[in-house]
Fold each of these.
Amino acid sequence: EVQLAESGGGLVQPGGSLRLSCEASGFTFSVYSMNWVRQVPGKGLEWISYISSSGATTYYADSVKGRFTISRDNAKNSVHLQMNTLRDEDTAVYYCTRGIVGRGDYWGQGTLVAVSS
Amino acid sequence: EILVTQSPGTLSSSPGERATLSCRASQDVSSTYVAWYQQRPGQAPRLLIYSASSRAPGIPDRFSGSGSGTDFNLTISRLEPEDFAVYYCQHSRAFGQGTKVDIK
């Protein structure tokens, strides 16, 4: 069974940093690209980052470019999102998803990031 | 930048009825990167349709996708109680704002 489990969310002050992790199981992680998608509670979905299966290619939404970094460890079946210089508007539930951009076939349950002073 | 617009914002229907949700891209797009998701309250989104018209594994055949170019549709042939939820259209990196299907 494919499972994705996010962790690392929490309360952080504006300007602070957090590192989110997503642990994958139930499939051959190293052959799949991965994404992070976020959702402000009660609002819509926003794609924010993609990483290819090897980690060689990454993409970012303009809203996070230069502040967030996606990475992966295929030996540990995990993908990470390093979030720096956090802003109030980064408050959201963050989901990791499997697959190419435009086809997230499995989603984790999400981890809540709250940016507030 | 391609924008994705969904309509209507809310669709009020009754169980057993047919529901058609629309998704429009701001320019011609490849169907390969068009997907539909369902999100129930308190849950993560679930992939229903990919490549505009291919049903994801385990998705009931009452869900179907169609369209090309700029206009895409998700049709639920007969609404079941568990289908009342929010539906999102995606093209590549862009999501639509969602259509809420609620009970009339």
Amino acid sequence: AQSVAQPEDQVNVAEGNPLTVKCTYSVSGNPYLFWYVQYPNRGLQFLLKYITGDNLVKGSYGFEAEFNKSQTSFHLKKPSALVSDSALYFCAVSEPSLYGNKLVFGAGTILRVKS
Amino acid sequence: DTEVTQTPKHLVMGMTNKKSLKCEQHMGHRAMYWYKQKAKKPPELMFVYSYEKLSINESVPSRFSPECPNSSLLNLHLHALQPEDSALYLCASSQEPSSRGDTQYFGPGTRLTVL
């Protein structure tokens, strides 16, 4: 079974500082990894995904993620945090099945950016 | 355009009521999903429709009944719900359900309260 882990329940960062939200994965075969963000009382918004190719994936709103096969990690990063980046972030992995692909989500990490 | 719409935004119902949630997408996506999400938790997959056919049912109680009238619409019929069913119900769609790299796009959700 495919799984992802988000080791931090919450990350606090000052506005203007770089931010990192961590994700590690456990998969059989090649990983298909995703990051989503959820603002309060809203649905999930897709940020970026890794399928194959470059280990540095660029996504929406200035976010990027670094795929590291040796460390089985897919950390989300942004060079300069904004207060508006404060939200709940989910890492996910695509799990294949006979009947279609399912997203398996991590527990989520709350990001708080303080001005 | 990657918009998935959901109605209503909020729903309050009694345990004996029958109600329906509606989801719509006009992106030509071939898969549609229902998720249930409790506060600050990851979404839990309930159902997947692939090419308008139910492909995944994650052992959801029969008081939840999905329906896919056509490729753009997805309904979730609710009957005799319990207070513990109160949650945010999210709909998502994706272009090609057989592809592991397929991105799911989420709607804003329906906040359901069962009294």
Amino acid sequence: QTVVTQEPSFSVSPGETVTLTCGLSSGSVSTSHYPSWHQQTPGQAPRTLIYNTRTHSSGVPDRLSGSILGNKAALTITGAQADDESHYYCVLYMGSGLWVFGAGTKLTVL
Amino acid sequence: QITLKESGRTLVKPTQTLTLTCSVSGFSLNTSGAGVGWVRQPPGKALEWLGVIYWDDHQRNRPSLGTRLTITRDTSKNEVVLRMTNMDVVDTGTYYCVRIRDLLHFDNWGQGTAVTVSS
């Protein structure tokens, strides 16, 4: 069974840059997995940040960016702010109308 | 403005069937490439993709759910309906519907509805 891997947690200081990654238990992530990233704060619905590897969803600032780094998808947050403190989930398209979410990364800004 | 809103009974007993409705506005369920997916989140846990229905009525489900899950749509009402049979306590969680654009991309999310499975 395919597992999508994410760092369980990450800490960043305000103003610094952090890169969260999204990998596969077996194989490499590519643009053909159409990776997307979703932010969720406690008690709230998820919000789409990035889709199709690097396309910004409406209203998402440019200081967030998506890419493929090596064999993983990546979400880079430049100039971290307090309200970036959230859970971040990636989801990969596995073909034939099937998607798999990662377990999420809890980002702390301190 | 695109919106999605889930509704339905929030407390079901084990073995019962869960029925949730996703009411959408701001986009057409008939647009080529459009879809509505369902995602759930057990308390304190990660998001889980459940299934999707597309503009052409094609449906795909999470394999582990087998035939328990059925997703249908009513374009006249702009609604997508999730039915999950034989509910168990492990199915407890918040259920979200999400707009899929261009076949492949998650976009707008509903606010979610919390479902509890308990006798």
